[in-house]
Amino acid sequence: MLLPKEFIKSIKSQYIHFPFCKSLCNYCDFFRTPLTDTGLGQYESFLKNSISQQNMLLEKKNLAFDQIETLYIGGGTPSLWGDSGVTFVESEIIKKLPFAGQYEFTLEINPGAWQAENLRHWRELGVNRFSVGIQTLSEKILPFLSRAHNIEESYKTLEFLATSQINYSADLMIGLPFSDVEQVDIISELEKLISFHPSHISLYILTPKDNYKYIDNLPCEDWIANQYLRAAQFLKSKKFHHYEVSNFAQENKKSLHNLKYWKAESVAALGPSATGLLSTPAQKLRYKWHHDLSQCQYDTEELTSEESQLEQLYLGLRTDEGISPSAFFNSEYYSAISAPDLLLRWNDFGYLEDKGRDKNRLRLTSNGMLMLDSIMGDIFKFLKENNYA
């Protein structure tokens, strides 16, 4: 059936949240729950209902899918979904949505929570990128994270991905409890990881809530900053480009799906707690699914022009593409990001890339990315002092 001309075919990405895990890590803020047969059945029913509701939402907003460029199944631990997941995604997603001739299809996996045969089935379905949650290769630190796997399973997973010549990304974390006391060195961990040939590495700083079990056993900010900057420099020397605050990629191996988020482009979302963004020149609508699997419901939030501009500014500064100040010419933020005093301050602190590459863009160095919250603080302070806010 042909779509009416007034429909805007702007959505090129679909995210699916799989909330189940073998165990619940003590630091994770994502919605997750232990896997049971009953829960899995409820989840698949939830997804079917949410697909119908998402279609109605898009129709109501005169939006439609274009040729899909990225499909991402995150969690939770999607590698626990098994062959029923392969069948479900094939019948409810792959066969019902328009996909581009080539598209990025990512599946998150965790050590100790996958079967080789099942991963083969996912690859036959079209998965061409895995994202594996390693978090640490320190045998001393891993027990403090309440992960379901041990170090041997981490290495088994990396060995499988490397020998199978699978394109994959690996997550590591810095600032973990006791990592300073145990003298865990991020360079040593990265050297081990790189020996298994990931094409992409995500390096996250642990940011726990106040009630985190090991809140008093975390390294100080200076120690964490040193680890982060040393890691960034090391990865650059190994031809991993620092293209986003927490992400490093070899050539042509950036996460295309996550780039959609950082560019504030439309991303449809399904699954409990999943958040989607519908973005057009005329509107930006965020919708978030409720956690309760027995009730398929979502909330919506229409972003104001000011909220959209702030998001565009913050997300733009997170990436190596940076921002074009002229894009904010009609915004209060233009005065701040063009203020000579602020630009001089940021340059003196080593936060800004040399403008020789493109004088019309504002880009942050690795040091600037690390201090992005401080930079945003400078912007808000400038606006307040100059009666913009």
CATH topology category name of the largest domain: TIM Barrel
Point out poorly predicted stretches: none
* Number of beta strands: 14
Summing up helix and strand content along with how strands pair, one would put the structural category as alpha/beta
User: What is the name of the CATH superfamily of the largest domain?
Assistant: Aldolase class I
Q: How large is the count of helical segments?
A: 12
Oligomeric composition of the shown chains: single chain
Radius of gyration: 22 Å
Mean model confidence by pLDDT: 93
Major beta sheet, strand line-up: 9-10-8-7-6-5-4-1-11
Terminal Cα separation, in Å? 49 Å
Q: What do you see in this structure?
A:
The structure is a single chain. The protein has helices at 37-60, 82-94, 116-125, 151-163, 186-194, 221-237, 256-262, 305-318, 333-337, 340-348, 366-370, 372-385; strands at 8-18, 20-21, 33-34, 63-75, 99-109, 129-135, 168-174, 200-205, 241-244, 247-249, 268-270, 275-279, 284-289, 298-302. The protein is of the alpha/beta class and 389 residues long. The chain contains twelve helices and 14 strands. The chain folds into two domains: 8-260, Alpha-Beta Barrel (TIM Barrel); 321-389, no CATH class.
